[in-house]
Protein 1
Amino acid sequence: MISSLYRWIRRFFADFDATHREKAAALTVIEMEELENIFALLLLGAFTGVPSPPTFLAVELLPYMDRELKILCKRANDCSDMLAEMCGTIGID
């Protein structure tokens, strides 16, 4: 009886720990994506009216923006397709 109660409590806390670890990892991924968006906005800010960094610095950092530039080109190609825009907003590639 006590052994089964102990196993149940141990399994409960193990599941509790796993759930919180998954949530923390998901939040970290979301934060990383937002930081990438901010990075892209800083480098390509001239398109939106935000002051951009010096040109030599932006050119040196452009190779790190490969993914963002692909997304930018894809969104530019799909700008007239409403379904593609909605899928992009949701995060479906």
Note: The chain has one domain: 2-90.
Protein 2
Amino acid sequence: MTLVQLTYLGVLALCLLAALWLEPVLRVGVLRQRRRLVRTLAPVLAVFVAWDVAAVSAGHWWYDGDQISGLVLPGRLPVEEVIFFVVVPLCAIHGFEEVRKVTGWSVSGRGGRR
């Protein structure tokens, strides 16, 4: 496996590091709410994995073998793509919760700065 083939995984790892280092610092608790996190990520994962598998099967989408690790799941889906569908929403949730924590903004509209 070459360094180029690990680039996608490396970018995903850096995205996670950029978002998750604030978990213990700000104590946002996203990772502690496992059930809520799974209920949030599962539909995203299901829809987009199905979408990608359908697109690959139909020949509308493909992955360059020189740009991925070579670990391919059923449906000819690279493992990096499935990880992407977990990492990106997880980073977005973290970003949202971290901004809420720093600004004091409340989802319900009560409390926090205005």
Note: Residues 4-103 form one domain.
Protein 3
Amino acid sequence: MPAESNKKVDDEFVPRETKNNNCNDKFMGGTKSIRYDYIAKTTTGDDDYPEEACDLFYHGNAQIDNLQVNNEINGIGSIDISGTVKASEVTASGITLTSRKPFDIPHPTKTGYRLRHVCLEGPESAVYYRGRLVDNNVIELPEYWTGLVDSQSITVSLTQIMSSQDLIVDKIEGCKRIIIKSGSAVRIDCYFLVYGERIDGEKLIVEYEGNSIDDYPGDNSIYSINK
């Protein structure tokens, strides 16, 4: 590009055209520098570029051991990294990952307001299923619970509606259904809330010795937010 250019970084890149010798691109020798220095930029324009010099090359591909960015990186496409990415803050599609897991949306009933909630936290990786039973005593669990939830971890909460019904959990049939019974033999009408711990992957290690998340003795890769 010409040395004097005010183009934005997102403008289309136009390779520099010169009328000089087309020398072969060769591997460069020398001693590797480990300092974080700024990348040099030529100040030679096309008109005063030496006639005897090789034609200029520009980087179509580049390799570097360490890169320090003081402000920001702009671009399109994908980034493939085999190692670990560490950052004080990570933002994707406008959502920043932090130690609390929030969602923030336009307020559904108040113009000019927003609504923010955070995820419930606890000492397990759990899922829930909730609903209402009316004139029925069987809670049919989602089919996928058979491969997602530990049946021995299931707990059930029942909230009676309109009248006392003396409700109890009669039995839990694996991860398929829960049988409810009324001790007073009246019509069943209740809300239910069922929790179960996920069985896909290792159990959460709640407390562990260490000074950072890197000291976690389990599999950190299954957690998307672990700042």
Note: The chain has one helix and ten strands.
Protein 4
Amino acid sequence: MTTAPLALQHAARIMCLVGLAMITPAGTGHAETPRAGSPISADEVYLDHLQGHWWMEGTLGGKPVRYRAHGERVLQGGFLRLHMIDAAARPQYEADVYIGFDAKAHEYVAHWLDRFGAAGARVVATGHRDGERLVLTFPYAEGAFRDTFTFEPQSSTWTLLLESLEANGSWSTFARYTLMRAPHP
């Protein structure tokens, strides 16, 4: 195999991306990267509602917490990354949640990466959306977690409910948050 065909393929891909960038309308309200597999599905548009700056307020283990959050499309638009950091002067928690939609499998995929390191990052969540509600399940060895994102279009807010699976098969609330739009820092 020669390298010329590979180099030509690479150059063709770059030209396609440049062409897409030139025809993408400007001033749409937020930066959006073209995604492979156009046209954009309703499931991908749903995730776009998480873009921007947010205040996250709620409870964790029954105690009040507040985070700053920022959602943006990353990896050429393939994932929505929600970056969260404790709003305290000395942050105790920080996480990135990557959520994407697998159009072939008709399901969402999520990775939750946080300050606790690689052990928790081994688990990949999958889930489905029903209307404005997205439920993701992380099958951790110690017990599953269920994250439910619910978008409220009238107020442009979100709720995020994190639940853990108990030994008896019931779900108990681990954390509950409301995400409200915040001005750009």
Note: The mean pLDDT is 79.
